[in-house]
Amino acid sequence: MMAADYTVHGVPSLSAKVVGSFAYLTIKDRLPTILTKVIDTIHRNKNKFFEEYGEKGIEAEKQAISLLSKLRNELQTDKPILALTDGREDAESWNQYLQRHQGLHGPDEESVSWFKSPWLYVECYMYRRIQEAIWLNPPINDFDVFNEGKTKSYFESQRAIMALCTHLEGVNKSMKELSDSELQDNFNKLLLVSLWGNKCDLSISAGQENSQKASPLESLDSLQPFILVDDSKSVWLTLSAQRPAQSGKEPAARVDIVLDNAGFELVTDLALADFLVSSGQAQEIHFHGKSIPWFVSDVTAQDFHWTMKQTAAANHRWMSKVGFQWMTYMKKGVWSYHDHPFWTQPHEFCDMAAEAPDLYPTLQKADLVLFKGDLNYRKLVGDRDWDFTAGFHTALRGFGPAPLCSLRTLKANVQVGLQIGQGEKLTSQEPDWMTSGKYAVIQFDSPKSEQ
Hints:
Elements lengths: L6 E2 L2 E2 L9 H23 L1 H8 L1 H22 L14 H13 L15 H17 L11 H10 L1 H16 L6 H18 L22 H4 L3 E4 L1 H11 L11 E5 L5 H15 L5 E6 L11 H12 L4 H16 L2 E5 L12 H4 L3 H6 L3 E5 H9 L10 H4 L8 E6 L12 H8 L10 E6 L6
Parallel strand pairs: 3-9, 4-5, 4-7, 5-6, 7-8
Antiparallel strand pairs: 1-2, 8-9
């Protein structure tokens, strides 16, 4: 069990207790800004709610805004964390999690509150409380408060999406003539595009415009020096090991992709998945998204299907062709989309086997699991104050359903697996290197390999 300071293996959780820390500034400034934007979004849709639902829509809008204003006040004044009251299927799990944290505190200790509790927990909790405010107020209970920003991000990235789809179509056309080394080069390119696509994160910019304007392929060489750990070769070798020799047999590889952001990043993930299938590196791709609107720009089922339909309907030859191919993969069952309540809970992934005993065996069926983005990284390694040189395998604390890889641009002050002195040098040169989105990692771990 966790100690009252939320320490595991002597490594404390990051929290807002330290004034001036990134966690402190996130909870003090960024999260209230996001809540204010959510309140504004609901208010701006007042007429839409009235047109669709009449006076009931107006009343629901008022009540939702009231609950969210109360939530913002609780956050800003460091009030105790409250139990959820909406009765949804995951509410009991959330409330049990809160009770466990309360049980770690003696009668004379501080309460479980916004600034004193683990940052990962309270940030996840805020997004769940936003959803509670919507769910408690039918008939607007299906409203996605973040949808506008996600669709805007997609449309503002059109040029980049066109360039990526044109590139993908060119690769697919010449696929049969490519040598193994050329296949690997094309894989690396699309892996890097997916990696850097993770820069487009609306939760970090507090909902400000954060789209991809230029072709991502043109900047890959200039971005290479900013990749602090590059295990892409291990990822390729893992995939290649699943590919049969020229025996005419179907490849058996299954790749799971745990998604992060909608908009341009999702398109980069779909492009990578397309290449994996068309090149014979994978036979099936399983995408994992969020079951509720989450962290401003995370992918939900609606975002996933909307993105494919929108791409297929584009007035651009290769975008349209690629989008149609993606929809065909879905219809044929080559691709599938899943969500699970665990992905929108505060648990670290080392608790998955115990907390989501149906999800962990699902991931065990994969030959490779790609985890996209910063939040997934924080949950992989526990959002703790690790030494920079702590091993990635160590930081996973037993989580290893299958060979896995984290594709992450750094936006939170946790990082493991660096060389001796690497983190300290970066800190002296660029104090915000862990939170600027300028740097990235491709970190691989396999439960079968000796660490």
